[in-house]
Design goal:
about 90 residues, two-stranded antiparallel sheet
């Protein structure tokens, strides 16, 4: 019971620290930046650009991790013993 309370408080403190760090990053990066891709130029605050970049990168890594996990699970299920047409395993 005590371990659960300690873990809960640890998670709360960790999330609070991360939120404060994120707020500091946003406040310090409010200047405008421009991103050009071919013929399109987009201007936005640097903080939003950083959040988009971090979110996109995190999403790619998460997709790769879960896709790899899914492919391992698929390979494991494909290797399960299934008799072929001749009845051999």
């Amino acid at each position: 019971m005590k371990d659960a309370i300690v873990k809960s408080k640890f998670k709360l403190v960790t999330m609070l620290i991360l939120a404060i760090v994120a707020l500091i990053v946003v406040v310090q990066n409010m200047q405008m930046v421009s991103a050009r891709l071919l013929f399109v130029t987009i201007s936005m605050p640097q903080a939003i650009m950083l959040m988009l970049l971090v979110g996109f990168t995190g999403g790619v890594f998460a997709a790769l991790k879960f896709n790899t996990l899914r492919s391992y699970q698929s390979a494991a299920s494909a290797r399960s013993v299934v008799p072929d047409e001749r009845g051999e395993a």
